[in-house]
Design a protein that fits this description.
Largest sheet: 9 strands, antiparallel
CATH class of the largest domain: Mainly Beta
CATH architecture of the largest domain: Beta Barrel
Helix content: under 10%
Radius of gyration: 32 Å
Strand content: over 45%
Oligomer: single chain
Structural class: mainly beta
Number of strands: 17
Length: about 300
């Protein structure tokens, strides 16, 4: 065999190897792995395949949620949704479904659940009867496919400031005016809904919220009514109403979430000392509440 014949055979062999290598399907997994396979069928929830190096062997199954894409031997590609990737699909080359961005992976969609803490909050009322810092926890769940509507369940504990009582120094049993101070607190329950104009795929989103609030707290009895019992006894009050909130929500990473909230509340029922001293019975002072949240998104 002369030199030219050997070169020709080598060239033919290299083409055959190249064709054989291309004649396999590749399954790209969400964890970064790649399976060289012969895909038999794609079911609604799984992909059935045989190993490329053992095509006479058994069939294997992998869940579609564990697969990012399949590159077929003819060069076409199927893109699939994973737990973190739920994009709209369009038809790609050869009739195969592909991503909506010309073969690029669909933009990631973040989790629908938020579990966060509020390490810093501040509540202040128009009438000066609330000047309180606080801490809290919150759970939120997005309810629709695109994440426009969320169910919000925050709880906030506020620590009553002595400034709350500055304008309420009552005379008790002729002993002169009493300056009240001590350890008092209140708890806010604020279940509500939030509306996000942007979709769930955006890292920074604005939201508008509406919620009911229930506030239960304590203060010195003498602040509420100097004519009943000892002024240093504890008086327990409640407050109910509506709250309108504005939030900037930031998903910094896949799971790290933070938000800045600014809300205004209007009490419909209020028996704090501010209501007791109001000129009109039943008049309740509105308040503003600021909070900063950090948490986990999943």
């Amino acid at each position: 065999m002369n030199y030219l014949s050997r070169v020709l055979l080598l060239f033919i062999a290299s083409i055959a190897i190249s064709v054989a290598a291309r004649a396999q399907d590749k399954i790209y997994k969400a964890d970064g792995g790649v399976i060289e396979a012969r895909v038999k069928k794609v079911e609604p929830a799984a992909v059935v395949y045989k190993r490329f190096d053992n095509q006479d062997g058994p069939e294997y199954t992998i869940l579609k949620k564990e697969v990012i894409k399949i590159v077929y031997q003819n060069g076409t590609t199927d893109y699939f949704e994973t737990h973190s990737q739920r994009g709209e699909h369009t038809k790609g080359e050869g009739g195969k479904s592909g991503s909506a961005k010309n073969g690029k992976d669909a933009k990631k969609r973040f989790g629908d659940n938020f579990l966060s803490i509020t390490p810093a909050a501040y509540s202040v009322s128009v009438d000066g009867s609330m000047n309180d810092v606080g801490i809290g926890i919150c759970y939120e769940r997005l309810l629709d496919k695109h994440g426009h509507i969320g169910l919000n369940l925050p709880i906030l504990m506020s620590f009553t400031s002595n400034k709350d009582f500055n304008n309420y120094f009552y005379s008790y049993s002729g002993s002169g005016y009493t300056n009240y101070s001590g350890s008092y607190h209140s708890v806010f329950f604020m279940p509500g809904v939030k509306f996000y104009p942007a979709t769930n795929r955006e890292r920074v989103r604005y939201s508008l919220g509406l919620s009911l609030f229930c506030n239960f707290g304590s203060e010195p009895l003498g602040v509420y009514n100097e004519n009943t019992g000892s002024p240093y006894d504890t008086y327990h009050y409640s407050m109910f109403g509506l709250m309108l909130s504005n939030s900037i929500n930031i998903t910094a990473t896949r799971h790290f979430y933070m938000a800045i909230d600014l809300a205004s509340g209007i009490p419909f029922s209020d028996n704090r000392h501010s209501n007791y001293d109001a000129i009109l019975a039943g008049l309740a002072g509105p308040f503003i509440q600021f909070g900063f949240k950090v948490g986990y998104r999943y």
